[in-house]
Amino acid sequence: MREGIVQEYKRGLKAVAVEEVFDLVFYRPLAFLLVKLIYRTSITPNELTLASMVLGICGGVSYAIGTPVSLVAGALFSLLYNILDCCDGQLARLKHSGTPIGRILDGVADYVATVAAYVGLAIGYANSSANPALMWAFTVFAGASSAVQCGLLDFYRNRFLDVTLGRKSVLGEEQEVFRNELNSLQQRKGHWFEKLLLWIYLRYSAVQRRVMGESTPSEAPALDPVAFRKENRVLMHCWTYIGPTTQWTIFIVCSLLNRPYIILWVIAVPFNVMAAVMFLAQKKKDRMMIRSTGR
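Request: output the structure for the sequence above.
Response:
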């Protein structure tokens, strides 16, 4: 029975090699227990996604209030948001009920919750500061830095899985799937929300591919997946330490200590330095691996 549960838990994960540490040891195990409780109910992954988004917004409101009690409430809302954010994907994978709209909705919920947290923190931070404009500027800079850091992790995580699992580029593959879904919906009346989500996602994916560049080792047909894993596994693991779950966890701990603004400094200074160093190291390794394929 225990082995069966372990295997079922692993099926609900993306891939251990690219998971963030806090996800593996805390959030996903708790999410899995919740998924087991609701597995046979009519609750859908999309409903869990919407519930997580509401919790994220509630967290942002709590941070905006800025009192010690509201900061603790914000931390609890953020904690529950992270757990539910893990639940929707696990439930979809276990039930094989994932949809293109569901994947996009999950991303939208992440953005909404993150923006709510930063806006709420900026309001609470500015209200207690002698220079509100400076606090807003610093919070916006930290929020933008966080978006770039998480975007880099997302790109390199998908590319790592593309090569090591021998699958097609997930960005290109998803774009084709989502483009077909959008074309299908455009033949029907209504569904304006789904159409809007698909349109936004396709534009976002196109920008991401242009910014990161499409001439990557993942496109080299002669590349050995085993060699790629060996050369990139340490760097891939390092990327996960600036990921969204790590950032949220620091945010939660700092809020419980009544010092939520510390996360802004963590993201703006050490995490930006780490991201820059890893980006340069990744580009150097990419060039080396591309040369090794004779391209």
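The CA atoms of residues 126 and 133 lie 7 Å apart.
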